[in-house]
Amino acid sequence: MNTNTEFASAGYTAGQLNALIKMIRAQAGEDGVERFLRGEVTISLPPRTWTEQDGVIRFSVTSDGTTGKQWIGRLQNKNYRVGDYAKSILLSPDFKPTSEITTEIVVLGGKLFTDKDRVTKKIRAYAESLTFENRKPVTPNAEIACLIREKFTDKDLEEMGLYWIVAMHDPIKDSVGDPRLLDADRLDDGGWLSALWDGPDGRWSGSGGFAFALPQVSSFFSRFREFLFVSPIS
Fold first, then answer.
1. Each residue's pLDDT tens digit, 79-101
2. How confident is the model at residue 14 (pLDDT cuts 50, 70, 90)?
3. pTM given for the model
């Protein structure tokens, strides 16, 4: 016989419980909590917006014409930090945004490579040797780093097992003339859009991933809805 009489809610604050009730009501109506208790609705997590197999993560992003300057404000408004080098890349005339282009991304996890092979030119060569449904990875537009940063929280990156995702676009020179690649980071002080130095012999740690594009697909594929939802029981 179980003699534990502690309420299951004992470990939660009043504020957390209040937020849960608000969430249920927002999705199922003012009587959502009562319907939930009667077993008429369930609370479900949405499917992940990414998949992972054999160290390769896949997802899609869709561009919307946001300029580099606009990305700085857009990300900062969402409490992401934008590094100085990243700002110089975003403000460069070589940063060329697109609009209504849906691109499927493949991220090659750093642990796919040995330390001696985790070098830019070898990573790019390895990507070129791969095939996904008869499509070979190609060099992405630099803007996908911004789209990735906006799409995924630091928690998402943690679930992927990554500290950063660098977009393997053509390098863009920063304000002092060094070639750099934009990347989404999760650091102790929060989420960042940064710009890392790049060269053909540049070496990388195994804690992140390298993002390439698959040939463009139609923007018919819309983005996943990224929030908790409540669905009726049929």
1. 999 999 999 999 999 999 999 99
2. confident
3. 0.75
State which residues form the domain around 38. Answer: 11-44
Length of the chain: 234
Residues 58 and 31 in one domain: no
For residue 6, the 8-state DSSP code is -
C-alpha to C-alpha distances, 223 to 28, 104, 143, 196, nearest whole angstrom: 22, 11, 17, 28
Query: For residue 209, is pLDDT > 80?
Result: yes
Residue 141 makes CB contacts below 8 A (sequence gap 6+) with 63, 96, 97, 98, 101, 103, 169, 213
Q: Which residue has the tokens 């005339």?
A: 93
Residue 197 lies inside a defined structural domain of this protein = yes
Same domain, 97 and 173: yes
Same domain, 33 and 76: no
The Cα 43–Cα 90 span in angstroms is: 40
Same domain? For 124 and 31 the reply is no
> Looking at the 3D structure of the chain, how many domains does it have?
2
Determine, yes or no, domain membership for 23.
Answer: yes
pLDDT tier for residue 77 given thresholds of 50, 70 and 90: very high
Q: Which residue did the predictor score with more confidence, 92 or 231?
A: 92
